[in-house]
Amino acid sequence: MVKLTITKNDAGQRVDKFITKAYPELPASAMYKALRRKDIKLNRRRCEGSDRLSEGDVLELYISDDLLGTAAAREQYRYEFLRAGTALDIVYEDEHLLVINKPQGLIVHPDSTYQTDTLISRIQRYLYEKGEYQPENEQSFVPALVNRIDRNTSGLVMAAKTAAALRILNDKLKSREIEKSYLCIVHGRVKKHSETLVGYLEKHEAQNRVYIEQKPNARTKTIKTRYRLIATRPELSLLEVELLTGRTHQIRAHLASIGHPLLGDGKYGTNRQNKGKGFSRQALCSYKLVFAFTEDAGELQYLNGMELRVRSVDFAQQFLAQPDCTVVSSIS
Questions:
Q1: At how many degrees (to 10) do helices 15-22 and 28-36 cross?
Q2: Considering 16, 51, 57, 150, which one is annotated as catalytic?
Q3: What's the Cα-to-Cα distance from 270 to each of 64, 210, 280, rounded to whole Å?
Q4: What is the pLDDT of residues 4-56, one digit of tens each?
Q5: Is the terminal CB of the chain with fewer CB neighbours within 10 Å at N or C?
Q6: Quick one: which H or E segment has residue 255?
Q7: Where are the beta strands (DSSP E) in the chain?
Q8: Is 26 exposed, middle or buried (0-12, 13-18, 19+ CB in 10 A)?
Q9: Average pLDDT over the chain, rounded to an integer
Q10: Is 264 left (phi over 0), alpha (psi -120 to 50) or beta?
C-alpha cells in the first residue's frame, strides 16, 4: 500500500490525472480497475477518478509495486529534462510565470517522434538549475506551458512555475482574458485594410492538418480571426493578426482559405508560391501578449494590464526595410 498526502501543487487535480502523473508506468486500465474495486481510497473512502483533490487529502493506493513501477524508473522519468538544451530567450520572469520567445524549429512538447530537446524540457532544466524546481519534492506537478505554438512558428509562450499559476492562467486563456497578437507575411495583397474573418474548422488528426468550411457542420468548430494590414510589397502583405478563438493551425488555415497563405508555409500554401522568396519556414510570429483580466485573477492580479512583446521580429523588419514596401499602418 502507498499513502500520499496531497500538497498545494497537487491540489485541484482529478484523482486519475494525479495518479497518472505520480506513477507514469501504471497502466491506465489497471488504475481504473483499482478504482472500481475500491483499491484506491481518498481520505479512507471510496473515490472516483473524477473526484478533485484538496491540499491535505490522503490518497491510499492498494496496488502492487510491480504495477506502480520502480522508484528508479520514476526518478529517470522525472529527470529526463536534463537531456534538453539550455538556450532560452526569456522575455519576462517572476516567481509564478516565465515567458519565452520560442525560436522557429523548436517543438514545444515531446511527441511520438521527438522526445528530448523541447521548449518545456529546456524550461524545466532552467528552473531546476536555478533551484526553483525540485522534482524529488513534487508528487505530480511539473512546470508546464500555458499556451502552445507550432514548431515552425516563433514567438511568446507562457510557462507556469506553480500549479496555482497554471490553473489561473489556463482559465484566463479559455475566457479570452489574455490577448494574443501575431505578425505574419502572406501571399497576395489583401482586399481590405482590416477584417474579422469567421469560418468553421474541421480537424483531421491523421493528416495533421485542418480544413476551413464556409458553413458549420457536426464536425466543425467556429473560428474567428481578426487581421490588420501593416504594409504591402508586390505580391505580399504584412499583417497583424489577433486570435479571437484559438484552434489548431487557425491563422495558417484561415488566411489560406481566403486566398492568402503564409509565406513559407508548404502545408496550407504551395512550394511553387514560396520558391525564390527566401523563406524556408513560415513567416509567423506570436509577438505580443496582453493580460486583460475582466475577473479577479487571485495571486496573479498584478499581471492585469501588462503587455509583453518580442523585442524584434526579423521577417517584419526585413519586409519594412525593402524599397518596394508601402506602409499602410504602424505595428501596434
A1: 130
A2: 150
A3: 55, 16, 12
A4: 999 999 999 999 999 998 898 899 999 999 999 999 999 999 999 999 999 99
A5: N
A6: helix 250-257
A7: 2-5, 40-42, 45-46, 58-61, 90-93, 97-102, 144-145, 154-160, 178-187, 194-204, 209-213, 221-233, 236-243, 284-291, 307-309, 326-327
A8: middle
A9: 93
A10: left
The H-assigned helical ranges of 159-207 are 163-174
314 is catalytic: no
Contacts of 175 (CB under 8 A, 6+ apart): 294, 295
If you ran DSSP here, which 8-state letter would residue 122 be given?
A: H
Residue 133's nearest CA partner among 144, 119, 117, 148 is 144
Query: Which residue carries 517584419 as its cell?
Result: 316
pTM: 0.87
Cβ atoms of 288 and 307 within 8 Å: the answer is: yes
| DSSP β-ladder status, 194-204 and 221-233 | antiparallel
203 strand-pairing partners? 210
CA distance 24 to 73: 9
Q: Considering only 111-125, 208-222, 223-237, 303-317, which range has the smallest mean pLDDT?
A: 111-125
Residue 280, amino acid? S
Contact 177, 291 (CB under 8 A): yes
Instruction: Please choose, from the candidates 150, 232, 148, 222, the residue with its C-alpha nearest in 3D space to the C-alpha of residue 188.
Output: 232
